[in-house]
Amino acid sequence: MHILLVASAFNSLTQRVHAELRDRGHTVAVELALPGNPLTRAVPRHTPDLVLAPLLKTAIPRQVWAAYPCFVVHPGPVGDRGPSSLDWAIQEGAGRWGVTVFQAEEEMDAGDVWASVACQVPPVAKSDLYRGEIADAALAAVTLAVERFADGTFTPLRQNAARTRPYLDQSVRRIDWHADSTRTVVRKLRAADSQPGVRDVLLGEEWYLHGGHPEERLRGAPGGLLATRAGAVCRATGDGAVWIPELRRPRRPGGPATFRLPAVQALGDRLPRLPELPAPPDADPRTWTDIRYREEGGAGFLAFSFPGGAMSTAQCRRLLSAYRQACARPTSVLVLGGRRDFFANGIHLNVIEAAADPAAESWANINAIDDLVEAVLTTTDRLVVSALAGNAAAGGVMLALAADEVWCRAGCVLNPHYRLMGLYGSEYWTYTLPRRVGAATAGRLMREALPMSARSALGLGLVDRVVDCGPEDFAGEAGRLAARLASLPGTRSRIAAKKAERERRESGGPLSAFRERELAEMHRAFHDPDAPYHALRRAFVRKEKPPRTPPYPARATGCRTGAEDHPR
């Protein structure tokens, strides 16, 4: 079928639906619901067989749903209605939730049900849950609904009992630092992640708090700041403390949109002198840190988890230091990647936007991530595996490709391109991407700038293994696979062959040449004030709506998984 996705933003779920429907043989186009692009005009241009709304914050107009079959994806079970479905589920501690696909009609969230799929609600932040269990359930529900629609024999079910809950506003999200337990505080913070955050007063000023991790050992006066770590601040509760990684200023009337920053950077000179408590990579699991290392079954596991998957200059440097420490350990296999959610998305555009000199910070950031990728590419005394529990984009994809093997959870979405940010790209992509998929396919991926499912990436040779499991199970599956790889008799010979191949390639053309050519392009974009990168970065960071749907997802596209030339 020809399916049109209508959405408020081309977000992670919309991208995954786009990629996986294409995998199933449908042609798919996207129209964003924008003030200057009314759906009443946009939808008829596509003459779709089906309109599907994976993320839509406004109602589909009557003129559209009366003329075309329109399915809406709602992140709640049958009978749940309202704009804050996931927020309420997390805030109230629901153990199970679900996703419903219903047909659009006059009343919001009240249409006939085409599919509904239940899922677990683990104790994670809303955005993590949305990209994990909710996205898995949504894809299962969308696939079932589309199959039922195509078959033509299914009769959708009427919704009977329903509960419509209001928008979860700040009066309900408010934290009472003296009365609320650490568990309650963490639940409120997780329910507000990544939007809208929890509005609070900190050091006499209003902030939105983003992210929350429990701390069992530190204690202090409730509401007080106790310490810093990796850009986060630790704040005392009545019975413990929480780590808060990011803060955001409230938007002033008539002022520009604000955006999240590492808490320490956001507070700046307002922050009193606090102890910096760096956690070693092998830190006790009862305390929070964004980089961890452990060993099991002859393999090392270097886990990292940065908010939003972005990697600032400081984060890249700390991860490189941890990587070098991990490489000093006597293991034959080193696995990179967090237990769940984002792998990485490249340079940290928010930190760059907030810098006194964004061009200089862009340059420092790209060099820091290039240093990290170079370290992975030049590791010759062990096998390195990138284990992608969640999505990756731009430089994050290229960091993954620097490894010897790439393993992806089946629900991952990959965006191996830079075009939407107006950049040529770096992170040695001109070396690693053609090596895996061939020059022609590498060029096409960069030009098309479309999201790709894990299975499509496997078909191209971009990844080596797809692990079909839930978000909570991926770390265990990757651990078992890594232990098996470390125990295989042929692993030592692979390491020796890898070293010889690296030496052969270096003699044919130094790795540094790829970096120099890429960075020359990046330097021009960073330091030209009229380059598109600056306006695109600003719009992305401040979540400015584009005037129209970008041309890349707007085109009706099918799936192509075969490489045009011979990879590797």
TrEMBL record:
Span of domain Formyl transferase N-terminal: 40-137
Region ranges (Disordered): 542-568
Segments forming domain Formyl transferase C-terminal: 170-250
One Pfam family in the UniProt entry: Formyl_trans_N
UniProt xrefs under InterPro entries: ClpP/crotonase-like_dom_sf, Enoyl-CoA_hydra/iso, Formyl_trans_C, Formyl_transf_N, Formyl_transf_N_sf, Formyl_transferase-like_C_sf, HoxX-like, NiFe-hyd_mat_HypX/HoxX
Protein name: Enoyl-CoA hydratase-related protein
Species: Streptomyces caeni
